[in-house]
């Protein structure tokens, strides 16, 4: 199955809802639904509810729109060097691979 056939699932323990709209992504490669992200990351210090990593850096947590507008997509990488764009793309694909493999392992182990 191709990566595009998968949906991201909330990494909050016991949630696992399919993500849509907005989500919260962390530097430790976890992603959370807007409800759980808003609640968890409003606290200081922020701690990842999936792996307990401290999230103290300015960009350790970001709220992102999962279906951005065409205008946003047209402008977000404008002016960046090609190697920077490729690096960003590589990191984004690695995130998706991690999420998809984690979900597959999680659901496969449930039998």
UniProtKB/TrEMBL annotation:
GO MF annotations, alphabetized: ubiquitin protein ligase activity; zinc ion binding
Gene name of the encoded protein: CCNB1IP1
Domain named RING-type: residues: 10-52
Name of the protein in its database record: RING-type domain-containing protein
Pfam families: zf-RING_5
InterPro entries associated with the record: CCNB1IP1, Znf_RING
GO BP field: reciprocal meiotic recombination
Keywords tagged on the record: Metal-binding, Zinc, Zinc-finger
Organism superkingdom: Eukaryota
Organism phylogeny: Eukaryota, Metazoa, Chordata, Craniata, Vertebrata
The keyword Zinc-finger is assigned to this record: yes
